[in-house]
């Protein structure tokens, strides 16, 4: 299946309809999304939202030149390693928009402030968030949210803007 998707470009919508524990990781890994260099937008929706979603989402690592990422209904406690590690700003230098929605069990978020070109951040339905990584190991002189225009504040249900 992965070879058939080598020329994938533009936007890709993935809906995980069955429980993640019943999905073979070999099926997902074969798509090798991170090698789809022409993919610009990735929309991943989980219908059942279980803790096993973590292993599925980990295998759906997008290419480094992705511009828009949408994760909806994810049931894991933390975002996948490809978003959480200290080098995510190097992995996704083109990412301008992130939407994380209805991830009811998610407790740990990455430091979104280190994505160098992030302009829009929408966080909603993250009822269990306890911790946002601060990536203290990164270079301290790197500014947080250097390109952010709007950020959704899920706790106050309001929009926080930085007028440029």
UniProtKB/TrEMBL annotation:
Note the superkingdom of the native organism. Eukaryota
Which segments constitute the R13L1/DRL21-like LRR repeat region domain? 4-125
Matches recorded under Pfam families: LRR_R13L1-DRL21
* Family annotation (InterPro entries): LRR_dom_sf (IPR032675), LRR_R13L1-DRL21 (IPR056789)
Protein name per its UniProtKB record: R13L1/DRL21-like LRR repeat region domain-containing protein
Organism for this UniProt entry: Chenopodium quinoa
